Amino acid sequence: MRVLFVSLSSAGHTYPLVPLAVAARDAGHEVRFAVGEGMHPALEGLGVRPFRVADSFYEVYAEDMEPELRRWRPDLVVHGWGVPGAAVAAVRAGVPGLWHGFGRMFPDGIGLEPPARNAETRGRPHIDICPASLQDKEFLETEERVPLRPVPFSGTHGPKGWDVSPGPVVYVTLGTAFGTPELLRMLIDGLAVTAARVVVAAGRVAVEEVGAVPGNVTVRTWVDQAELWPHVDVVVHHGGSGTTLGALGAGVPQVMLPQGADQFANAEAVAAAGAGLRLLPGEVTAGAVAGCVAEARHGGYRDAARAIAEEIARMPSPREVARRLPEFV
User: How far apart (Å, rounded) are the C-alpha atoms in residues 39 and 287?
Assistant: First the structure.
């Protein structure tokens, strides 16, 4: 069977689709991945044949996809929530398709078109990597879901290996699209005085812009989160879906500093579940973050996070869902 995966060209949208794409390849399907060239280095070597659609670099539109669908004639298209154009093109070409989520169903007003908004694509099943206890309730009630366990994928670049000494570790990340030197510096100053090792993923902020750091602080441009999670006591982050689900899957309490996109909804859901705390933009100070980290480490937040981790562990694996893909053709 030929399976075409399509995603926005960003880590937060591409990486959630990778575990199923690899599992589909392992199940014997011929797999290709349509995405902008920025994501190709992370996908090359996985056997999923990444390629750029037409003149598309970030977004994918229906007119971009139509020639590719005629040329390759896939049996199934797995299109991310962020590329409704790919879903429209598949419908018009008569090719079965599945939506693939990246977390909770996102709210209106964040710059993405909700899948239910388009009459042409409405009713297609959703591969849903969000545990039901945190998923949007209206989405749960109205859409057909195919649960899939979220499996962290961190790409194939950057240094690996952690010599983590015994003791608490606080992980700080503001993702690949958010963060400023000033905010990272504030977080480091607030957390460095704690008796913890602080690991910082600087993302789009150059490491040298962060400046000198104390001996208990490590700053890297990129961190393999999948490798680091077993060592983390608390994560301080922006509320992106990938970090949110990664922390929940590892049973790690969270301190969330939402800034935009779907982050406010994610932070609200995690706080309501008791698995973390949130600080809104006007509340973020070095002292407030340090206080929240101390509370998250010693409150009942870890128990709540571990309960969700157990729920995630019971969700079907990528291999199990890959075996079901022919059902949707």
Answer: 37
Q: Which residues contact 71 (CB under 8 A, 6 or more apart)?
A: none
Distance CA 90, CA 73 (A): 10
Residue 149 token pair: 């366990």
Type of residue numbered 126 = H
- Please measure the distance between the N-terminal and C-terminal CA atoms of the chain and give it in whole angstroms: 9
Query: What number of helices (H) and strands (E) belong to the chain?
Result: 14, 13
Q: Is 239 left (phi over 0), alpha (psi -120 to 50) or beta?
A: left
> pTM of the entire structure?
0.92
Checking if the pLDDT of 317 tops 90, the result is yes
Reported as a single tens digit per residue, the pLDDT across 103-157 is 999 988 778 888 878 888 888 999 999 999 999 999 999 999 999 999 988 665 5
- Distance, in Å, from the CA atom of 138 to the CA atom of 217, rounded to the nearest integer, reads 42
160 has a pLDDT exceeding 60: no
Please name every residue paired with 30 in a beta bridge, in sequence order, or none if there are none.
Answer: 2
Nearest to 85 by CA among 123, 118, 55: 118
Cα distances (angstroms) measured from residue 54 to each of 35, 49, 155, 315, 318: 10, 15, 24, 36, 29
The rounded mean pLDDT for the chain is 91
pLDDT interval class at 158 (50, 70, 90): very low
How many C-beta atoms surround the C-beta of residue 162 within 10 A? 15
- Could you give the CA distance from residue 54 to residue 185 in angstroms, rounded to a whole number? 41
Q: Is the distance from CB of 300 to CB of 275 less than 8 angstroms? A: no
Ranges of H-type helices in 50-120: 62-72, 84-93
Local structure of residue 32 (DSSP, 8 states): E
Contact 220, 200 (CB under 8 A): yes
Structural domains of the chain, with CATH: 2-147 (3.40.50.2000), 169-313 (3.40.50.2000)
Residue 145 zone, left/alpha/beta (φ > 0; ψ -120 to 50; rest): beta
